[in-house]
């Protein structure tokens, strides 16, 4: 049986490695502190653990090109945690992948391996893991408990993997707080996602349940969500995708998109490339976030290709807008002044970019909304003083149907409520995700996280 082979090979390689527990303990003391794996899985809405997986015994090589750090960076804005296969012989993994990635991203990392000794746990921690995998099937009761305690002493809550009712019982008796249900039978590789749905029933609410393996589509995820699964572990589907961010979103079924407006510097572009909002905005109108064409073009070229660029104009001439849009290769022009419906129509007829028209959220009449919605791809509702960090009464627009964008005073603390009330297609934020140095990485991540919860 393959599992037996893997364990035997693992034993041999451990013997060769001759891990020294005192050395490892010392390395753990200087390692980056572990992140809270449990909490990111516990959050509202289904969480995704994206796996860095090069090959598997059942599928052979899954992904030929394997820039592991880049893949992890892609994952950073798309999933709540990253699982890294470190087993070498059968999964073509490596401890080096874990080590490199831990130095690059802030997301909690799970060390995915066949673990049956304390040394392996110390090794995982020393290389930056925030959690480890413990497979019930290969561990005696006492050993399972001992390894759980060992991991916790290093600040890691393990993912305890099961496949049968008996194994779930064993995991719970050992005190596991995160139980994985592997849909794949490790002895013959058959996969059935109903396995997670059935076994979920035997697990109490406060324990986090992770459905593992064979998750391929939004419809799978919807079924798992309905069954009360907290998180999914996805390897192959994401590894075979050329667009990790998009595929993760598709699995999640997210509908509300995010626009981060008013970027000015390459540093801010770097931050956006890590967080990967759907859109970013370059402000061409006079404002403290104004940028010129040259700078915009440069920023645009540095942006991750999945992020669309919106140019923001206020009462600008047709020719100027058109030339700027072409020069900077804008995906969208956003008209944020008193532009009339005729200008919107003419720009839209060019068909090289989308046209968004901004309107003040509170004071606008149904008649005006109706007229502009005929000539713009999206209507954007903002407070009367754009960029002023003020909200308006969302009540006014909550019944406006069609493609709307909500802006004005949004920030991580209120965007969840805004999304719930208004159900916009896109939320737009600028000052709400800024710190003293401009756009702030952790504020943007929190903002996106809030949108994901409710969107
Ligand atoms: O690639 P998939 O079908 O999405 O599966 C991911 C993950 O669940 C799988 O890699 C896995 C689950 N448990 C394991 C134990 C060891 C090695 C690998 C695994």
Describe this entry's structure for a reader.
- The chain is an alpha/beta fold.
- It folds into two domains: about 1-250, Aldolase class I (TIM Barrel); about 255-455, TIM Barrel (Alpha-Beta Barrel).
- It is about 40% helix and about 20% strand.
- The chain contains 19 helices and 20 strands.
- An eight-stranded parallel β-barrel has the order 1-4-5-6-7-8-9-10, surrounded by six helices. It has an eight-stranded parallel β-barrel with strand order 11-12-13-14-15-16-17-18, surrounded by five helices.
- Helix 13 runs parallel beside helix 19 (about 440-455) and helix 18 runs parallel beside helix 19 (about 440-455).
- It is elongated, with a radius of gyration of 25 Å.
- The two termini are about 45 Å apart.
- The model has no long low-confidence stretch (mean pLDDT about 95).
- The site of indole-3-glycerol phosphate has 14 residues, from strand 10 and helix 11.
- Keywords: Amino-acid biosynthesis, Aromatic amino acid biosynthesis, Decarboxylase, Isomerase, Lyase, Multifunctional enzyme, Tryptophan biosynthesis.
- It holds the Pfam family PRAI.
- Pathway: Amino-acid biosynthesis; L-tryptophan biosynthesis; L-tryptophan from chorismate: step 4/5; Amino-acid biosynthesis; L-tryptophan biosynthesis; L-tryptophan from chorismate: step 3/5.
